[in-house]
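hey so i finaly got around to running the thing on Nitrate/nitrite transporter from Nocardioides astragali. pasting the sequence first so u can double check i didnt mess up the copy paste, my clipboard has been acting weird all day
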Amino acid sequence: MTEQIHDIGRRRAWVIWLVGLAVYILAVFHRSSLGVAGIIASERFDISATSLATFTVLQLVVYAGMQVPVGVLLDRFGSRALLVCGLVLMTAGQLGFAFSESFVGAVVARAVVGAGDAMVFVSVIRLVTAWFLVRQGPMVTQLTGLSGQIGAIAAAAPLSYLLHELGWTQAFALTSSVGVVLLVAVLVLVKDSPYRRDEVVAIKLRALAESVRTVWGNPGTRLGMWSHFVSQFSATVFTLLWGYPFLVQGLGWTTGGASTLLMAMTAWAVVSGLVLARLVARLPYYRSWIVIGVVITMVVPWTAVLLWPGAAPDWLVVAMAFATASGGPAAMVAFDLARSFTPTQAIGRANGLVNVGGFTASLLTMALIGVVLDLSEPRGMDAYTLGDFKLAMAVQYVFWALGVVQTLRYRRRGLAHLARVHPGSIEQMKAGRPFVHPGIGTEGV
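ok and heres what it spat out for the 3d tokens, dont ask me to read them lol
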């Protein structure tokens, strides 16, 4: 039996989590830094708005595309090694971005940042799985996701100040140096497991496809992926790209009002995340239903806004935005779902596959909204009307419908799997006690 040498869920666990959380906040900061530097970047590289959007889309594509291989590497080498690697890549990419003079060089630098970013979140979630009690897991997972977003917003003002005071090169070079400090902290303080021998499994890279197929064959992994898919994309699309134009150009809001609402959405995400964490901990059997409930809460006000004759009243738009913001915390439930079906030595692969869901839906939705807008009004952003935006935003219903159907489908399959492979697990969850996977290795799925 593996010897436990550190307490679980106590002071050391919180210290390790805080270091990992700091790395995640830095990753989100690097990911979203162009939100502050976009105008300066367009002038520095002499590029159009479409080319500027390439930076964001490319980072998300790299992030999503790397989730599966990162999951395999995470199970092979552990969270500490991947956090170190992620910090090295993000620091190098951000430093390269600071000194880039050409658009191509800047794009390559942002791709490197995206590759490092891809390693961080799932590594922190694996630390949560290893170091915290099952009853603590949902709350710590929610705090991880929410703290990252709050940190990015808090860092936006200092970056804007640095850009105007120091200029492009010095500002980005200075922010990249934070990665060096956190690299030392990870090396000194982070440990992969509270046990003497970690549950890291030696997977040979040539067996990657087989190992991923095994984890993907577990209906719990797919349940987590589709839950992430259906709940995350709307908030991501709204806050990262299309929400601001929809509010200002479509609904006629002021730029200040639109910015304030986007900020308020993050505050609401914190509140709803804490509530969801308590619900998930108390009602483990109904976790996927909780996700679907949040999605329905999003769909209803969106329908009212899109069907309202002319511009919807402000109170309805605010309700729609807050409901949309709840999708971010709901997406965190997907990782808790996957944990019930997956042994510790495979949790990295499972979390990587789950994480693909929401980002894939986000990229597809962003792209399709742009296509619909271009088809309805080829003259560009200045010519878009509220009707054009309403038609384009209706693209979301395709992904909501697909996600809900698949979530319900794999909930049924997942429960049947647990009842067959782990007798008594269903009754345990119905009684309000979370099911802890015994970690017996590969299951017949």
